[in-house]
């Protein structure tokens, strides 16, 4: 599935609320918060010249979020950041004075945080971020996980002291149950998807992701001409596309959203002109992207800032994982989880089928984002045929060519 953006809002300025959320001032705030994180490091940007040449491109870079804040996923930037902001806002109200990130360890601020419980639904990575953020500030977390979330991912979230709530059904079912229970118990929902009347907190989550594109632009010698970013409900894609639109204006790159064919809710929104719920059939191996309705806030940005929408199949996602684990000579090894390499999978499909439509050629400078490392190491080994530790150690699976 490939669809150019023919929405009437395409290439129009962002909604003022979204421009404020995803603009320079918001990104500055995120960086200021990150400066207070003990384990904050800029994530690597890898050049893949051999694969770029194979695809007939001028350059290909991968921003590797598998190293982000000890969580192995870009989600580390969103949920925890929103938790910090919400705790500080509540502390400022309760104490009657301005409270900033440097005050998070103060006894009076932590006493207020201890009265707060943050709830969310998750496929795995967002829940870890919310749980980690709550633990760091001394708050509580209740994380709702659906039937498709692996035991390893559940254990990783529980390791941050979160209360785990199991939900029958899929991700969308867990979102609804988290919102219902949180309303009953007066908990604060920190969701990465939005719904009518609930937009500001998902906006804060998206604001956290602006760090990724800001870092990448600083690391690149020249801005990219094309960017491929995967989507679940659309938050990461919207954050990257929106920030690029603001800081680069008319010089911004062609932006392509990539989704699993089995959970293509952003493609469905592009067809309908608004978010719609897509049917749930078979689960997708791209577990972190298994969402069936786009976030309205994310769609509002993507309707304006995305240029094309496409899907990839199950085998293409796995092939991208394997290709990053066993690269061409001279290219670096990259550990990408089931959803991490989907942007690259989209690029490879686009080169084969939609090169002319997207203007991909020997002068193209392409950026993709590895959104997660091996956040479920057992599943990674099943799909790639080798453990993530052995990939990083340079060991090849049996039968692989060196």
UniProtKB/TrEMBL annotation:
Gene3D superfamilies found in the cross-reference section: 3.40.50.1100
Enzyme Commission code(s) on record: 4.3.1.15
InterPro entries, A to Z: DiNH2opropionate_NH3_lyase, TrpB-like_PALP, TrpB-like_PALP_sf
Protein name: Diaminopropionate ammonia-lyase
UniProt keyword annotation of Signal present: no
Pfam family, one: PALP
Alphabetized CDD domains for the sequence: Trp-synth-beta_II (cd00640)
Organism: Mesorhizobium qingshengii
Domain Tryptophan synthase beta chain-like PALP as annotated: residue spans: 42-371
Domain of life: Bacteria
Sample GO molecular function, one term: diaminopropionate ammonia-lyase activity
Keywords: Lyase, Pyridoxal phosphate
The protein's required cofactors: pyridoxal 5'-phosphate
């Amino acid at each position: 599935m490939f669809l150019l953006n023919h929405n009437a809002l395409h290439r129009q300025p962002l909604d003022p609320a979204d421009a404020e959320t995803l603009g320079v001032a918001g990104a500055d705030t995120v960086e200021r918060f990150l400066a207070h994180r003990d384990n904050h490091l800029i994530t690597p940007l890898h050049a893949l010249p051999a694969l770029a040449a194979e695809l007939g491109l001028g350059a290909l870079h991968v921003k590797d979020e598998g190293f982000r804040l000890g969580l192995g996923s870009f989600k580390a930037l969103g949920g925890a950041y929103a938790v910090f902001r919400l705790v500080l806002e509540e502390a400022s109200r309760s104490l009657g004075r301005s409270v900033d990130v440097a005050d998070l360890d103060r006894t009076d601020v932590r006493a207020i945080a201890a009265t707060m419980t943050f709830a969310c639904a998750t496929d795995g990575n967002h829940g870890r971020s919310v749980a980690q953020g709550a633990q760091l500030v001394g708050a509580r977390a209740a994380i709702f996980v659906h039937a498709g979330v692996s035991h390893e991912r559940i254990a990783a979230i529980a390791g941050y002291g979160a209360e785990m709530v199991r939900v029958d059904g899929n991700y969308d079912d867990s979102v609804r149950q988290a919102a219902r229970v949180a309303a009953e118990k007066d908990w604060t929902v920190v969701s990465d998807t939005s719904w009518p009347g609930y937009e500001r907190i998902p906006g804060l989550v998206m604001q956290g992701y602006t760090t990724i594109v800001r870092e990448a632009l600083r690391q690149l010698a020249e801005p990219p001409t094309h960017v491929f970013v995967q989507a679940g409900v659309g938050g990461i894609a919207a954050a990257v596309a929106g920030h690029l639109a603001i800081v680069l204006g008319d010089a911004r790159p062609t932006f392509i959203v990539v989704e699993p064919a089995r959970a293509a809710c952003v493609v469905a929104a592009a067809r309908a002109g608004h978010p719609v719920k897509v049917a749930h059939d078979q689960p997708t191996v791209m577990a972190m992207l298994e969402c069936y309705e786009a976030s309205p806030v994310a769609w509002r940005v993507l309707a304006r800032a995305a240029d094309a929408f496409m899907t990839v199949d199950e085998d293409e996602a796995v092939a991208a994982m394997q290709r990053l684990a066993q690269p061409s000579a001279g290219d670096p090894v990259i550990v990408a989880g089931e959803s991490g390499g989907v942007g690259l999978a989209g690029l490879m499909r686009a080169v084969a089928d939609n090169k002319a439509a997207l203007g991909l050629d020997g002068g193209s400078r392409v950026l993709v984002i590895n959104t997660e490392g091996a956040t479920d190491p057992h599943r990674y080994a099943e799909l790639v045929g080798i453990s993530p530790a052995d990939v990083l150690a340079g060991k090849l699976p049996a039968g692989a060519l060196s």
